[in-house]
Amino acid sequence: MAISTSLKGLRAVVTGSNSGIGLGVARELARAGAQVVLNSFTDTPEDHALAEEIASTHGVSARYIKADMSRPDECRALIEQAGGCDILVNNAGIQHVARIEEFPPEKWDAVIAINLSSAFHTTAAALPGMRAKGWGRIINVASAHGLTASPFKSAYVAAKHGIVGLTKTTALEVAGEGITANAICPGYVLTPIVENQIPDQMKTHGMDRETVIREVMLARQPSKEFATVEQVGGTAVFLCTAPADQITGTTISLDGGWTAL
Ligand code: NAD
Q: Is 64 marked active-site?
């Protein structure tokens, strides 16, 4: 039987997708033919313009739906308003960096809610439709920090390890029903948030751009190269195609060798 790699006719919801990795994943899914639903907690003309641009570039339908992933009711409403989904990409995430003793409890709660609990709620809302159809893909954007730790990122590391556990449990609950659940674990990806840190790091360390990238930002990434949003998006597309039908309950690292150390 020929193996299909087109996503035509499938609807994808990507949480936290008005910038960075989520937007890159949405673009790659649309390029492969999927209808896409973009999301974030804002509701600006720019948010809706992104969906229009994706629709016109790739000839697919694309919508933007506002929903705050820190709120369980809004996570579930996102899936309902989208009309269900065949592909769910849980990508929304925030970071906060502080020693555990100084870590504000409300920041801990926000990181856990947005980076971990939102995926539980969207998955719970999306699974009945996937089960009824006998096909579905759940892709959780975790991190190298889902597999290894760094100091001062307690909530982020806990949430990312948590989402790897949620991924495995989801995969076991739906095994044999045409639904897979996997986590993508990027190392450093050159998104606007990361790019914006480079000038400050250059000043702090008195280094040029290339040295800051190699010696500071990518100190733990042996390839000394950032992953790209297109690579994360391409991996998500691959997980939606037939060759990946038996890949489930696992993590795929895009970290230039970081977690092999
Ligand atoms: P980003 O800040 O560009 O993207 C985060 C997205 O989440 C944005 O669209 C933002 O609007 C959205 N978001 C934040 N709070 C939200 C909320 N309450 N409700 C809905 N949406 C919300 O950062 P990014 O680097 O693209 O990160 C995307 C994901 O990739 C995150 O889960 C992050 O942990 C993960 N990740 C990033 C890197 C990296 O180096 N950039 C590496 C590994 C994993």
A: no
